Amino acid sequence: MKIYIPSKSRYNYFNEATTTIKELNKGRTQDKYSVTLVVPGNEYEQYAKMLLQLNYIGFKLFGLKDNIQGISNVRQFIIENSSDNKVLMLDDDLKFSLRPKLDDPQLLTEAITGEQILKAIEWCDKTLDDYAHCSISDRQQNWHMTKYMIKENSWTIESQRPMRVYGFRKDIVLGEQLNFNAGLSINVMDDFHITLCLMELGYPNIITAYCAQGQKSSDARGGASTYRNLELQKECALNLKKLHPETVKVVEKTTHSAWGGTKENPITRTDVYIFWQKALGIKSKESKLTN
Q: What is the Cα–Cα distance from 71 to 188, expressed in whole angstroms?
């Protein structure tokens, strides 16, 4: 398995840009796996300088050509050009937490070691032997998932929403002729699109709650925030609905923190609600687990 971390315009924001590699560095993940920071070609030198200043040894850096713009096109480039059949893509601003006990839905601690983070990465690697896609749970949904997992006595759950951590089997994504871009503007919801495509074809995803990941803000400086706005968000939501009419519902959401919203002046944005489990097998009744 190879690991890729797309990043854009965050070389001056060390806290946002290097959180993920800082976490992976704790357990020297880069000693076992190839870990590549994928950045715009015209920012290559700035990112190289950042890695050198922070003394992060063993991480690779790849500069994209100017014609590859937007996260959906970056992810498509990665899946098409990875030399490994198992691909793990991580957002660049992640912090990991640990769930030491399955039977306590409220318990989630940031006291996580590098070895425990590496264990979660290794789980993704092993899981992609049998699944087309996998993820590590989002911190916000972790305790909701854990209540179900306690009932089933399992650390994992299938056919749920993945966020920020995306493991894929290259042969299946390309073999099914799937594209993150989809020919429509879904550039800030491409992860939802590709996950729904796989589920509709009968490939369930699987998510672990052994640990969780989160980010400081969904609209932090740099990254997709350099081009994402309320108009693009609405366009992508409506296009995702066109692509997946049976499982996507367009909604309006109000935020008091991200997107420039405050308690005094909240922001309303167009978003989506997705019926994840309903998506499984819409286009194929056969459940497809690979071996």
A: 7
Closest CA to 1 of 128, 114, 156, 173: 128
Q: Which CATH number fits domain 2-279: 3.40.50.720, 1.10.274.10, 3.30.420.340, 3.90.550.10?
A: 3.90.550.10
Q: Of 145-149, 224-228, 240-244, which has the strongest mean pLDDT?
A: 240-244
For residue 289, what are the contacts with CB-CB under 8 A and spacing of at least 6? Answer: 130, 131, 203, 204
Collect all residues with Cβ–Cβ distance below 8 Å to 187 and sequence separation of at least 6.
70, 71, 72, 73, 181, 224, 227, 228, 232, 236
**What is the rounded (10 degree) CA torsion for 7, 11, 13, 15?**
70
Angle between helices 114-127 and 19-26 (to 10 degrees): 100
Output 261 or 98, whichever has higher pLDDT: 98
Query: Does residue 27 contact residue 118 with C-beta atoms inside 8 Å?
Result: yes
Torsion sign (Cα): 201, 183, 172, 117: negative
